[in-house]
Amino acid sequence: MSTIASTPLAEVASEWCTEAEVQVQVQTSAVASGRHATRSVLFIGHPSTVTEVTHWAAVRHWTVEQGLKPVREFRGDVVCAIVTEAVVEGTCPSADAAVVQRVRSRGLDCIPVYDIEPWGTARLSCVRPSTSVP
Predict the structure, then answer these.
(1) Quick one: pLDDT at residue 65?
(2) Which string of b and e fits 85-95 if b means at least 16 CB within 10 Å?
(3) How many CB atoms within 10 Å of residue 67?
(4) Dihedral, CA of residue 25, residue 110, residue 1 and residue 45, to nearest 10
(5) What strands, in cross-sheet order, belong to the sheet with 110-112?
(6) Residue-wise pLDDT tens for the chain (134 aa)?
(7) N or C end of the chain: which has fewer CB within 10 A?
(8) What is the Cα–Cα distance from 97 to 111, expressed in whole angstroms?
């Protein structure tokens, strides 16, 4: 996969991702106002290809639809982390690597964004909201 940095696609992808992020924030607020959404999914890294940006935004959208909060800081009730290819390969900034170590030390999964099909994923079954039996 080619990177989108230094290409006209970079601007388009960046705009698209920004729009998706705003939409997710609006939806997260709506979900939180309707019920107490305290469980969250941590997103670590910065997508760098068009495909990765697309997956990243789709997974963030999916988490909101599941009543979870997509977050960028490791605090609160984080159920797992979604990571970029650079994080998986170890070519990410040291700050991202440190967060991954903290996540793993708590026994949480770090799932590569490419391992997920957000429109019907089995890998994220751990983040589905728990159902209570009466």
Answers:
(1) 86
(2) bbbbeeebeee
(3) 17
(4) 50
(5) 69-71, 39-44, 77-83, 110-112
(6) 445 555 555 555 555 555 555 554 554 454 455 555 479 999 999 999 998 998 899 899 888 888 899 999 998 899 999 999 999 999 999 999 999 999 999 999 999 998 876 554 445 555 544 443 33
(7) C
(8) 14
Both tokens assigned to 89: 């390969």
Question: Any idea which residue has 């793993």 for tokens?
Answer: 104
